[in-house]
Write a structure and sequence with these properties.
Layout: E1 9-13, H1 17-30, E2 33-37, E3 53-56, H2 65-73, H3 76-79, E4 82-87, H4 92-101, E5 105-108, H5 113-128, E6 138-141, E7 144-147, E8 152-155, E9 158-159, H6 164-175, H7 183-190, H8 200-212, E10 220-223, E11 227-230
Helix pairs in contact: 2-4, 6-8
Length: about 230
């Protein structure tokens, strides 16, 4: 897919043509390049190097949307691509499963176009946001190595599969190491629009981040009234 749109290239995966036609029409009018695929299996051989954001439902397909996101985010190349899971769901469990798979955000169907566009802009901004300048291009903490230029994290030379959001939180905490950052400050910096979300999403993402960092996750501490801090 050639990058021709000013705002970026978006891949939409859904077998509901009414939804995909609506998204394609409106996203193109906003200035995005849009590619539509009906099934996740159709993407298996696709070249995604020019894709900036994926909108995926495929809850009842094989591979499912969750499986597709997890497979995409398990590769270094896939980590640079923003992902929004959009589907019908009745419980918080679906939202948590989507985030655990590596999605940057989740939208419940039916959705308003204004909300979807706001969430797309927010994820694209987080993806494109320049890293806060660091004293060194690489920071180490125990066996963990964080390469700010490549936005990659390894522990014992093993790649750690973090979502864009989890990495952004880790980077924010590292650049403010040994200093507490309040929950609301993290929320405002990582989710600047705040559309459809609340501060609880900070706790959810930090809980997943701690788990993925294993023993080093204990370096992320929190204190009531002060927020979160990574102790180095």
């Amino acid at each position: 897919m050639q990058s021709q749109a000013t705002l970026g290239n978006i891949l939409v995966i859904d077998d509901d043509t009414a939804i995909t036609d609506l998204l394609q029409l409106n996203l193109c009018s906003e200035g995005y390049n849009v590619l539509v695929k009906v099934h996740t299996a159709d993407v298996r051989e696709s070249d995604l190097r020019d894709i900036h954001l994926v909108l995926v439902d495929a809850a009842r397909q094989n591979p499912s949307g969750f499986q597709f996101i997890s497979a995409l985010k398990s590769t270094p190349a896939g980590l640079r691509i923003g992902v929004i899971f959009f589907s019908e769901y009745e419980s918080e469990r679906t939202l948590i499963d989507a985030l655990d798979a590596g999605a940057d955000d989740s939208v419940c169907k039916p959705f308003s176009l204004r909300e979807m566009l706001a969430r797309i802009r927010a994820v694209m901004r987080r993806r494109c946001r320049a890293a806060v300048p660091a004293p060194e291009p690489v920071m180490t903490l125990g066996d963990m190595r964080v390469d700010f230029a490549r936005k990659s994290v390894t522990i014992d030379n093993e790649f750690v599969n973090l979502s864009n959001t989890e990495y952004a939180i880790l980077e924010l905490l590292l650049h403010n190491a040994n200093t507490y950052t309040s929950r609301i400050e993290i929320f405002r910096k990582i989710w600047p629009d705040g559309t459809g979300a609340n501060e609880r999403i900070v706790d959810t993402n930090i809980s997943r981040l701690r788990r993925k960092l294993g023993e080093l996750g204990s370096c992320i501490v929190n204190r009531s009234g002060l927020g979160y801090m990574i102790a180095v």
